[in-house]
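hiii, so i know i said id send this last week but things got crazy w the move. better late than never?? heres the sequnce for the chain we talked about at the cafe, plus the structure i predicted for it. fair warning i was half asleep when i ran it
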Amino acid sequence: MKAILLSAGQGRRLARATDGAPKCLVPIHGGQSLLELQLRSLARCGIERVVVMVGYGADRVESEIASIAIPGLEVATGYNPFSATSDNLVTTWLARSSMDEEFLLLNGDTLFEDQVLKRLLAEAHHPVAIAVAQKPSYDEDDMKVVLGRDGRLDAIGKQLAGLVPDGEAIGMTIFRGEGIDGFRRILDEIVRTPDGGQAWYTAALDGLAARLRIETVPIGSCWWAEVDTLEDLRSVREVFDQRKRLTSTEDPPGRTAASFA
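okay and structure toks below
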């Protein structure tokens, strides 16, 4: 399977940690960047080709990619020249030429243990399937989801007026068959609207949910994190540091040194 990785952003809320570099190059653990950790996890899960969508600091990201050697993984880039003035729907729309077969769409700031992706790959049976996490409450920055009785997606967005969220999308979605054409079609529709340049690609998922079934796959207790703020970054670094301490003697139950991105 191919993966499309959305890594065009600057990461303004991480500015003190990035030192002017693109968000995806923020160092996480042992000299490895967010991007490198994602690529290595994708390779461990059987992904063979990745298209990294770049924008801000594109040259630096491409240089980083060239320096990372991962056996069995082919990495190419696509470019969003409007990344400074657009949101990720435009970046996703610009990747549509790579949506020519089944693919995984992954946010460039989502870290996860390998089991998250392995579960999604194993349990996704419909044309579109998204990985969903659940917790006691959700804040305004969470990409909230509302589910139907059969587990299908009814609505997705950060603002869901009058609706009670059942979980949050972690930024990992699989597209197959008619889901590919449906997603491309609705991206085309939204990008032509007056506000299309400022939309998230989840707006396309929200609209697509009314046209075909979008399956949701709960990730259970598997670990994942969005690296969006300095607090997120500190928390993620602590997780990796703790993992290193635990695996320096023996692997904790159910985890191995390679099980985290």
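btw The radius of gyration is 17 Å. thought thatd interest u
miss u guys!!
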